[in-house]
Design a protein that fits this description.
With 342 residues, the protein is an alpha+beta fold. It is built from 6 helices and 12 strands.
Amino acid sequence: MKEPTDTIKVASQMWSNPINPGASIEIGISAAMSDGVIPAIENCIMTVVAIGEGSDEPDPDPEITITAEANYDVDTGLVIVNWESTEPTGIFEILVSYDEESFTVAGTVENEATYSFEPEEFELLYVKVKQTSDERTAESEVCPVVNTTEKINWDDPTDTDEDGLPDVYEIYIYETDPNNSDTDSDGIPDGSEVFVIGTNPAKSDTDDNGINDGDEDFDSDGLTNLDESTGGTDPYNSDTDSDSLNDYDEIFVYTTDPLKWDTDDDKISDPDEIGLGLDPNSSGTNGIPDSEYTVLQKISESNYILSEINDIAENPFTVSLEINAAGVKTTFTPPKADIQML
């Protein structure tokens, strides 16, 4: 009988069922030292890892994906091509076609992501980018490029539809119709949307809240954006002329001018005339100019104007005023004085 030893070498033919990267496998071992004796195997250690033929080859390279865009710069007369690739290195060929069938190489760069070239005279051309990297190739989709043969004159004031927005801006910036003064049919001229309201002239509901731009009331003064656009008031200021009267009230209650703090030019503000009982739309009352017309004005003891006087602790009396005066009402402030009551 063979004498037992401390170490037993175990060979297992694994090449018929290799272990894939990241996987695991269970190995069964059977052995016999003598008839009727089952050995106890402990501290079994793998000391040799044999790599089979072909396992040292790298994984196949992934496919390349490339996307491109091309634009014509009318100021420089160049077609500017930019692209992105899942493999940023390699040779990039910029291909151009004037019929979308026959492509020629406009230029070649290495390890770059942009290229510019001057095209032949054209109305429409097609561009794509072909990449070669480590014997792998990929092509982008074809990009159509529209040519504006003449340099854009941004100072051209031509306004065919008379909406306040020059044709050149309608065509190249806002994509509105230069022959339609209200492209999105929201009631507001394209020019007013751009320069006054601040909404999109090509979209009837700029903020997608379900309300037409013309029906919105940005300053909550009771006037819609369309009303403000038509009347020339500020859609973001409920009191355009800063006279303390709401724009809506000026138009529909007092019939005053929301763009003038003194509608009748009599040197008395609209709210003062209303407070004095005068007509803010007439510069005279009973044949007398409003600026000279006297009205009995009362200042009660509870009025804030007299609060400093009437709050004097040692004064057992309170003061109120009645005075015939002409002119401004709301700006009247009596002079401060030390008052002693006898």
